[in-house]
User: What shape does this take?
Amino acid sequence: GISLGTSIDPIYVRLEIHYNNPQMSSGRVDSSGIRLFYTPVLRQYDVGTFTTGVVTAPYIFIPPGADSYKVYSVCRTDGFSQAVGQPIPDMQVFATLLHTHLAGRAIQVAQYRNGTQIGIISQEIGR
Assistant: This one.
């Protein structure tokens, strides 16, 4: 669950929906929804969202006519406990969202430990 109500919890939450209608078809109706459940009983694990790659910077813009363009970034996890104000003994990735605004042809998130790749968390190759 998502912890709410403590001094280190979020003040608000946001639901963001991206629609994809490249053919501009008319008459499309969104009937999706969301249900939130609240309980005072603490869960064994809290869920969190970790977002990467959202900063717009000059090195992320794809040069005109480029056959390919790669962007690499690194996320160091040694500061996570300090950032959230409590120890994080173990972190489990249970979902990913790869998103390139139709510009990407391949995207991959890999996990490294001590400089060695130990696995690929998520990938989408060859659209």
